[in-house]
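From the shared-data thread, chain only:
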Amino acid sequence: MTSGLRIPHPQNTYQEKTMNTSRGLAIALGALLLAGCGAMGGHHGAMGHGGNNATATHGLTALQSPHSPAETMNRLEAEVKKRNLAVVARIDHAAAAQRIGQSLRPTELLIFGNPQAGTPLMQCAQLAGIDLPMKALVWTDAAGQTWLGYNDPQWLMHRHGQRDCAAAEPVGKALAGIAAAVVAK
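Structure, as tokens:
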């Protein structure tokens, strides 16, 4: 006969601890994700919303373009080819939206690069391959302003756990040079 005293079974104790640890980790991860989302949404007036001529938010460098979206993208593609970089794809998101009966302000992506620039980045942080080849986005914001944006290579290295990658600096300078040429008047 028992007197109401519960003697835990060793396996149940382990399962309870595991469940409590998992629950705690899930709560912490959820809080971290929400904090990150809150931080991402906290850039009112940043790029694409009528902000500065050049801005950087979460690794995205963006420059206002004085040209139309189509001209900006054409200038980008020409500049990339002029520098002997391969154009992998040109994706017109607005045209894709139109094909399904939806509307989207001009939004077009150019994917480009070469192994001489990308390989050293992946040697620093192999998982950076998910972000390569490089990409540049041309879009029009709600105010009708055209923007050109690209991911900063040093930020990409940081994203993939590599804080010191010498190859990121020259790639960043090359992208900045391309972008400056594209948005020049």
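The first strand starts at residue 54 and ends at 57.
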